[in-house]
From TrEMBL:
Gene, per the UniProt record: ppk
Binding annotation for Mg(2+): 381, 411
Annotated NCBIfam families: poly_P_kin (TIGR03705), PRK05443.1-1 (NF003917), PRK05443.2-2 (NF003921)
Protein name stated in the entry: Polyphosphate kinase
Start and end residues of each Polyphosphate kinase middle domain: 128-302
Post-translational modification: An intermediate of this reaction is the autophosphorylated ppk in which a phosphate is covalently linked to a histidine residue through a N-P bond.
UniProt xrefs under SUPFAM superfamilies: Phospholipase D/nuclease, PHP14-like, PPK N-terminal domain-like
HAMAP family hit by this protein: Polyphosphate_kinase
The keyword Transferase is annotated on this UniProt entry: yes
């Protein structure tokens, strides 16, 4: 085969369009009638929240590149201008679909269930009077009409604010434009009465009572609009004298940044629209006309309604079975958490396991245990009422040495993190703000404890933030370990936060930006070498994004070498699967469920000596080169079994899983007549079963649910093969024939007819029974033939 040019743009998908494809999958969950009505509404709200951030970050960045005259193309061959045009054209029908579904399906469905979103005109006179009184007493005093005329400049429109554009006149014929900001500190949904779930939108209530706010005026039109501004406001860190001052300035500049999107009522008159376009500096392509409500994010308010019959079954995170017996957060009992970790690594899986009962308990113990000498933590995002921060403060008050790395550049959390920095410093805690040129994205904590046999290091390496709120909605993993090598590696990482340089020698951890890219690249190349040599070779990776072109190239090379690769990528993915002769051995999956898939898991079969890792990094250039990240090996067999269950159950999910096509589109996996297999439901059940079972692993793995096996332990030559099932398949054509050791010229399929069969699967065409008695599935005949040769030749 001719060597391919792996830099050819045709082999790469666009990053921005790939992210929009993920948002489309989120929207599809919001329109999927298999979800209860309020669950669908939650997904519609998330779609708005996610796309708001997408426009602020990604579209804002594209506009900056266009304004700066950047002409460099992306790996997929697009300029910034071309991406900007395609993104806006792709997003437009998605917003239309969201509005249409709300108006025609979900709003009537909720009304049938007793949850009505009304206009004031649809209410009785008594209800209208009651709401008018509420408006006059509680809402009117908070409103500030801002006129635009020769005597008044055009008002500043803040980012993501919802507003009314009012055209009015008095004696003259020339209308006046007035902007009225919808108060963000008032409920968006105003209850009509206390006896029923009936609501009016606050913007409709304001419009209905404008005569009280703008008396003696002829109101010609009232339209709603929302402005989205660029969040990609940066300053050069190297010339900033103080990182805190720089971040404060960036936050301030973001308020006045360029407008990247203008959403308006579908029937906004030309006069109002022309004023907004001219004053905000947007063109026609950046204007999105919306039917019905413009902003759905506030619909999260409705989801809190006490109607469990209209929601997915409630889930409360459970105690970890190995930690649930620790009854208190103080005294001698708390020390047992360190004894428990020392007895064996613990894998916490949120939101299935309680954050408070695992990670928070670990930090609470560190703060109160008299034998603890020092506590160190890296904070990227945390809750506004963070108990994590309070634990660190308590530790300092109790005489521990405390060092905290707070990433001030965590986008949209800068203000929150600045407040925590000030509070920590007021307590005398040493705080590092970040690193020039790098973001600190690692989620790690280190506890140093004096014990009878010397100083012991206890570590936490996680995939998610130290945030109790997101730990209830994000699916994340965290390893609690007393492994000294990991502890020493973390010591080096924390020394880098306060010291002058980052060591590039680590015992076990993969650390970006110094060793992680090199080690991951080596492991992918190693799998390719195993495949070429006829040894066991497989890669399964679960990440949030695959954007780095170099990693995509290595995966393509591994695929052509015969490595079977499954990539469970939540959103951004540049790689094109299913290209003949290049990526036909690669399948890209995406899971969209009630919990945001956020955990990163890496599996390399390594010729029968498997390696497992978890950590904070995706395979994106920013994570590998421009962030401080940590990925840890998972070596305990029992914990690997849990990771194996997560991956294999994910790969057989037929409810939440999507499979990417080679053109970048995604198709949902259907259960058809098979039982529904929802990965998140399976993990909830496995967690509850573990709790019922008592002290032991964090989840009870149901091996009957696993159709194909990833290696947990190293394969030895003493393992014997289970007798494979008989196959009623006819052998492949004669062109598959090969010379065998006995001198016969027969097909490998004919030589081993009881070692393969054709499974009933929409994804896989071939199945091979391995010498170890496992089933391995393949999409191509070549893959099955290579495995048969590897196992039995």
């Amino acid at each position: 085969m001719t060597e391919r040019d792996l830099t050819d743009p045709e082999y790469y998908l666009n990053r921005e369009l790939s992210e929009l494809a993920f948002q489309e999958r989120v929207l599809r969950e919001g329109t999927d009638d298999r979800n209860p009505p309020l669950e669908r509404l939650r997904f519609l709200a998330f779609f708005t929240k996610n796309t708001d951030e997408f426009f602020m970050k990604r579209v804002g960045g594209l506009k900056q590149q266009i304004d700066a005259g950047v002409t460099k193309t992306t790996p997929d061959g697009r300029t910034a201008k071309e991406q900007w045009v395609e993104v806006l054209d792709t997003a437009r029908p998605l917003f239309a679909q969201q509005s249409e579904y709300w108006q025609s399906v979900l709003k009537p469905t909720l009304a049938d269930e007793g949850i009505e979103i009304c206009t004031p005109e649809e209410l009785s006179e008594g209800d209208q009077e009651q709401l008018r009184t509420h408006f006059e007493e509680s809402i009117l005093p908070t409103l500030t009409p801002l006129a635009f005329d020769p005597a008044h400049p055009f008002p500043f429109i803040s980012n993501l604010s919802l507003s009314l554009a009012v055209l009015s006149s008095d004696e003259s014929d020339e209308p006046t434009f007035t902007r009225i900001k919808i108060p963000p500190n008032q409920p968006r949904f105003i209850s009509v009465s206390d006896e029923a779930d009936r609501y009016v939108l606050i913007e409709d209530l304001i419009e209905c009572n404008l005569d009280l706010l703008l008396p003696d005026l002829d109101i010609r039109d009232v339209s709603k609009f929302k402005v989205t501004r660029n969040a990609e406001v940066r300053r050069n860190e190297e010339v900033a004298e103080d990182l805190v001052d720089m971040v404060e300035e960036v936050i301030e500049q973001r308020r006045f940044a360029t407008v990247v999107r203008l959403e308006v009522d579908a029937d906004m008159p030309d006069g109002s629209l022309a004023i907004l376009k001219d004053q905000l500096g947007v063109d026609d392509r950046e204007v999105f006309h919306r039917e019905g409500p413009i902003d759905f994010e506030d619909c999260f308010e409705l989801i809190d309604i006490n109607r469990p019959d209209l929601k997915s079954p409630a889930w409360s995170p459970k105690p970890h079975p190995r930690l649930g017996s620790l009854a208190s957060d103080t005294g001698d009992e708390m020390r047992s958490i360190f004894d428990e970790i020392k007895n064996g690594d613990i894998l916490a899986h949120h939101p299935y396991h309680s954050f408070e009962g695992t990670v928070q308990r670990f930090l609470n113990a560190a703060a109160t245990d008299p034998d603890v000498l020092a506590v160190k933590a890296a904070i990227y995002r945390t809750a506004s009422d963070s108990k994590v921060i309070q634990s660190l403060i308590n530790a300092a008050e109790n005489g521990k040495q405390v060092a905290v790395m707070v990433e001030l550049k965590a986008r949209f959390d800068e203000k929150n993190n600045l407040e925590w920095v000030r509070q920590l410093e007021e307590e005398g805690i040493h705080v590092a703000y970040g690193t020039v040129g790098l973001k600190t994205h690692t989620k790690t904590a280190l506890v140093v404890r004096q014990e009878d046999d010397g100083v012991q290091l206890y570590s936490h390496v996680g995939t998610g933030n130290y945030h109790s709120g997101t730990a209830k909605g994000y699916s994340d993993l965290g390893l609690l370990t007393a492994d000294r090598d990991i502890g020493f590696d973390l010591t080096k990482v924390f020394n880098f936060f306060t010291g002058p340089t980052l060591d590039d020698r680590f015992r076990k951890l993969l650390i970006a930006p110094v060793t992680m890219r090199e080690r991951f690249t080596e492991m992918v190349k190693r799998e390719a070498e195993h495949a070429r040599a006829g040894r066991r070779a497989r890669i399964v990776v679960k990440i949030n994004g695959l954007e780095d072109p170099s990693m995509v190239e290595e995966l393509y090379r591994a695929s052509t070498a015969g490595v079977e690769i499954d990539l469970i990528v939540r959103d951004i993915c540049r790689l094109r699967p299913g290209i003949e002769g290049l990526s036909e051995n690669i399948t890209v999956h995406s899971i969209v469920g009630r919990f945001l898939e956020h955990a990163r898991i890496f599996y390399f079969e390594n010729g029968g000596s498997p390696e497992w890792y978890i950590g904070s990094a995706d395979w994106m250039t920013r994570n590998l080169d421009y962030r401080v990240e940590a990925v840890t090996p998972v070596e305990d067999t029992q914990l690997r079994e849990q990771l194996r269950f997560i991956l294999e159950a994910s790969l057989t999910d037929n409810r939440r899983r999507w499979v990417m096509q080679s053109d970048g589109t995604y198709e949902p996996v259907s259960s058809d007549d098979d039982p529904v297999r929802d990965i998140q439901e399976l993990l909830m059940a496995a967690t509850e079963a573990a709790l019922d079972h008592g002290y032991g692993p964090g989840m009870v793995v149901d091996t009957d649910l696993i159709e194909e096996a990833l290696l947990v332990e190293e394969v030895t030559e003493t393992e014997t093969a289970a007798r494979p099932e008989e196959s009623d398949e006819a052998p492949p054509d004669a062109d598959e024939k090969q010379a065998h050791s006995d001198g016969g010229d027969v097909s490998v399929f004919e030589a081993y007819p009881d070692r393969w069969y054709r499974p009933d699967s929409e994804t896989y065409e071939w199945a091979v029974r391995t010498a170890a008695g496992e089933r391995r599935y393949f999409k191509t005949r070549d893959g099955a033939r290579n495995r048969l040769q590897t196992e039995y030749e």
